[in-house]
Amino acid sequence: MLAKHANGFSSSEVDADQVARGYREALQARGAGVRTFEDLAGRLELPAGFADALLSPLDAETRDTIRVWLTHHGAWDPAATQLGIHRHTLRNRVRRAEQALGRSLDSPGLRAELWLALHREGQ
Q1: pLDDT 10s digit of each residue in the chain, 123 long?
Q2: Is residue 45 situated within a structural domain?
Q3: Which of 1, 3, 86, 112 registers the highest number of CB atoms within 10 A of its CB?
Q4: Distance CA 42, CA 40 (A)
Q5: Buried b vs exposed e over 74-113: b needs ≥16 C-beta within 10 Å?
Q6: Pick from 103, 117, 101: which is nearest to 50 by CA?
Q7: Do 18 and 54 belong together in one domain?
């Protein structure tokens, strides 16, 4: 079932116990000016200053390293190959990023935030 906002904006498909989430998605769709929540894909924008604040502790080399590593879904060998470095060097750079950020890159949430911030930076 789809949760629909009164003005015709809809969520992704939800079960009866997920109606609250569906309603929130419909509101997000309305706020973005699209008809369905799925239409938001690729249109999410970070709040002003978020990317700069998140990335500020990272130097250019570390940003590039994390961008490549995330592009390879955290796979060490292909990312190291693309960067032209040894995988242990890559691991050290990722650890350096974690220390600078004060957070673990094992967190899918942080990875998503970094991906969005790096994507915004590259625009």
Answers
A1: 445 544 555 655 666 777 776 777 677 666 666 666 555 555 566 666 788 889 999 999 999 999 999 999 999 999 999 999 999 999 999 999 999 999 999 998 889 889 888 887 765
A2: no
A3: 3
A4: 6
A5: eeeeebbeebeeeeeebeebbebbbeebeeebeeeebbeb
A6: 117
A7: no
Domain span at residue 56 reads 50-121
- Work out how many domains the chain is built from and give that number: 2
Pull the structure tokens for residue 83. 């960067």
CATH number at residue 88: 1.10.10.2840
**Hey, what are 27's tokens?**
């509101």
